[in-house]
Amino acid sequence: MNQNVVLAVGYAAVVFGAMYFLWIMPQQKQRKAQAEMLAALLPGDEVITAGGIYGRVVSLTDDDVKLEIATGVAIRVARGAIVGRTGEERASDE
Description:
The chain is of the alpha+beta class and 94 residues long. It has one helix at 2-39; strands at 46-49, 54-60, 64-70, 73-78, 82-85. Strands 4-3-2-1-5 form a five-stranded antiparallel beta sheet, covered by helices on one side.
């Protein structure tokens, strides 16, 4: 009976380890990359939002971003709604 308990604990540890390396670790890495991208945003960057809106960053605050989506048309979106940069990357990123 004692051997069965050790075996069950061993299986649970293997399953938890596999879950960590296949699911939790990649999510943490992706979250860190997203936070770094948001922190590095500058006016002039071309971005895409979670809603699929493309625009150029006009100004930034801690909580929101003002995007120019057409000539003379600017909208305000939550900073967390920015999912990535598009177009040409800044020269400092190379």
